[in-house]
Amino acid sequence: MAEKFSKKSEAPIEIYGKKYSGIREAIEKLKPDVTEVTIRARKRYDWTPEEMFGFEKRDKRKEKSEEKKKRERHHTDEDIIVEGVKYNSISEACEKYDINPTVVYNRLAQNKNNRWTIESAILTPKRDRSVVVNGKKYKSSYAAFKEIGKVSFTTYQGRISMGKSLEESLGLVDMNQDN
């Protein structure tokens, strides 16, 4: 009878001090409540074997901390120099220039065509997307829509894409009125 899976050699795995020849053997012997696909996905994200098999709960704070360290580590091979001053971390430089580190990390992570250097990511101010409608300032056009929009979101989006004014898109102005 042919086996479902190829007989590739797997790395041994140790769970609570007991060694197994691989993930498949551990699954057969331990009968975890999670699938093999889930276990292998968790392995790619560096979960401990006990967490991979669902025997221990994954600490979300630890996971977020590890993600943050990975992001910071990604840029630690470069010196953090902004306007001639050297900083110990991107976060430290962000604090000095009053910019949210998440904005800088996102710019660096989505760095297609090498558009962003660490310095430019820190020095470029965040875009102001605020709008004024009927004399009141909103953080963005979407924030204005949520607060005072009189049409469905789909209608609002469609009108914006057709080039209508913000007031028309929000349904505040009658579009059929002759001027």
TrEMBL record:
Superkingdom as given in the UniProt entry: Bacteria
Protein name: Uncharacterized protein
Organism: Vreelandella neptunia
